[in-house]
Amino acid sequence: PHIYIATEYIKNGDNTRATSELLRAVSSDINDERDHNNIGIAYYQLGNYQNAILHFKEALRLSPDYEDANYNLAFVYEEGLGDHESAISYYKKLLWLNNRNFRAHFDLGLIYLKEGMFDEAIKEFYNTLNINPDYEEAKKAIEEILPNWKGVSYR
Known about the structure:
The chain is mostly helical. The chain has helices spanning about 1-10, 15-25, 35-45, 50-60, 65-80, 85-95, 100-115, 120-130, 135-145.
């Protein structure tokens, strides 16, 4: 229950109480990957990226194939820390576990785009649309890249 109370405090902007509840949750004997994942999400929302990473990794230690924790690790490395290399690694692991995760394909494409890896970005955006043809963000990303792209089509 401490995790859920902390989440409510975060929603209400009460970071002091949220942190207190998270510390209570951590001090209890948690051996469930979902609880660690949820604690990681709460820490991410507080901007405490290192503790978020610790809990996502603990979730993966408990359940190495846990897709949510892989996604969240990739996300915190990218959005929180700007560590593209680590983010790419976790997105690739997630896609190895579930190649139909359109959101992971799209987010990986965004990283490739930021890195100037246009061939890889286009490929991931097309992978996104092959899984979810109505995903407007992927369509927009492709439209923005194509005028300046000189690579080979992946269609």
